[in-house]
Design goal:
This protein has 184 residues and is α/β, with parallel strands linked by helices. It has helices spanning 2-7, 27-36, 48-57, 92-101, 112-117, 147-163, 172-180, and strands at 17-19, 22-24, 41-45, 80-84, 107-111, 138-140. Bound molecules: iron/sulfur cluster. Iron/sulfur cluster binds at residues 47-49, 85-86, 112-114, 119, 143-144.
């Protein structure tokens, strides 16, 4: 038990004022802390990068350490859309529909060269980057990226989640971003 205890690191508590029997902080910081450590990913894996994600979920890399072991295959119960693999243009509308079905707040991670830019497939049939159809928060480079890189992407998403203002999703800037993609 003590050995296990040594390997578990507790999440940093948000800044606040504490004393005997009380701790005061802002709602925004508590919500950020809770969201950051309970991200439910939706793996949209179409090819080889998906295999790296499977390794990331395995015991060695263990995505559960970051509170993200609960994968969601329903967009309605997911916070993070992870796009991993080559996205054919025919697949584009489906990916976009999945994104639109996710509830706010939602984040998107583009994993691997294919999802980020079409990768080596500079052809008529392959989408040259998913940010042509949906907004992306974090890009993970590589062909394929190693599981460590995927974990690095998760840490960057966690930072965004933790520090995002609760008002951001109602801001004119965010609405303008979605409008740019033709999303209401
Ligand atoms: S980036 Fe490379 S490894 Fe990933 S899906 Fe494309 S070809 Fe496969």
């Amino acid at each position: 038990m003590s050995e296990l205890h040594g390997r578990i690191s507790l999440a940093e508590k948000p800044p606040g004022i504490e004393g005997a029997g009380f701790f005061a902080t802002s709602l925004e910081k508590v919500v950020g802390l809770a969201r950051k450590n309970s991200i439910w990913p939706l793996p949209f894996a179409t090819s080889c990068c998906g295999i790296e994600f499977m390794a990331t979920m395995g015991a060695h890399y263990d995505l559960a350490r970051f509170g993200s072991e609960r994968l969601s295959f329903s967009p309605r119960q997911a916070d993070l859309l992870m796009v991993m693999g080559t996205i054919a243009k025919k697949m584009g509308p489906i990916l976009r529909q999945v994104y639109e079905q996710m509830a706010e707040p939602r984040w998107v991670m583009s994993v691997g060269a294919c999802a980020c830019s079409g990768g080596i497939f500079d052809t008529y049939s392959v989408l040259q980057g998913i940010d042509r159809i949906i907004p992306v928060d974090v890009y993970v480079p590589g062909c394929p990226p190693r599981p460590e890189q995927i974990l690095d992407g998760i840490l960057k998403i966690q930072h965004l989640v933790e520090t995002e203002s609760l008002r951001r999703r109602d801001s004119p800037e965010y609405k303008a971003l979605l409008n740019k993609y033709g999303i209401e």
